[in-house]
Amino acid sequence: MGYRVAVVGATGNVGREMLNILEEVKFPVEKLHAIASRKSIGVEVSFGEQIIKCEDLEQFDFSTVDLVLMSAGGTISRAWSERIGAAGPIVIDNSSTWRMDPDVPLVVPEVNPDDVEWADRKNIIANPNCSTAQLVVALKPLHERARIKRVVVATYQSVSGAGKEGMDELFDQTKNVFVLGATPPKKFPKQIAFNVIPFIGSFRDDGYTDEEAKMWNEVHKMIDPEIKLTVTCVRVPVMVGHSEAVNIEFHEPIDEDEARDLLRDSPGLIVIDKRDDKGYITPKEAQGEFPVFVSRIRKDPTVENGLSLWVVADNLRKGAALNAIQIAQLLHERGLLRQKALA
Predict the structure, then answer these.
(1) Can you give the residue ranges of every domain in the chain?
(2) Is 54 designated active site?
(3) Which of 5, 150, 205, 269 is the most exposed, fewest CB within 10 Å of its CB?
(4) 98-109 residue pLDDT tens
């Protein structure tokens, strides 16, 4: 007995990755529906050995499914998620729309799995921001051991975080630099090929961007509102994989060896940390992988209890699609997915 699952936004980068991971982890799917906008009706996507044609979001009867994986953007989620949840299935949403709603759990299974227990308030569970997801997997075990006081983060975010248009723009600009000159930017505010852009999202009145604010708000909701956190989000010319330089100040002493051992024993993490030219991870090696990788663990001598880390993950996987499927697995393990449609 499996579940009837709908993937909304099935033709996008994350939607296609959701389909791949559902098959990879052998999630118990009885029937899979690929849902998209009207313009994508009939477009074919792959699910294992099956080829599935996309169905129309406007016409689909969501009361016939048990689980909806939503990755169609904030506008669609805002318009549809509550209606879908009211029809019965649980919605796992990848947009920022519901993350800070007090009646919607924001979940990374390695960090706050028990929060899925109150998903029935709206039948919606939110996926965090891609950069937040990998960050909290690394922070949680350290916070439990030594209580985090303050975190300073600089992100190095790949263009896939901006969707297929971002990936296409990097590819086209990189290719054309050597021919006719880089094509003008469309998706990004400035040229991304051979460049870095210290701006993601939109500016707030305080000078930070909404992408940066998402990270500290989500850390507060999932781990501890007392943690002070400041962020600079940077777009870099990498196709897939987000990286973060993380500086942490603790209330209690913790040395780098203890932190290294603690992280090695924590779920969802792999530590690659040797002091040679192959002893650290880059986004290239993390691409296609499930875990969050931690490298460059070292003492920060400028504060009493400080450490610096390098944190890398595949943003399309742990940062989005994988985390959503792991939430679905958690719901399944705890008996919280109702098979109403198969009764």
Answers:
(1) 3-127+321-342, 131-314
(2) no
(3) 205
(4) 999 999 999 999
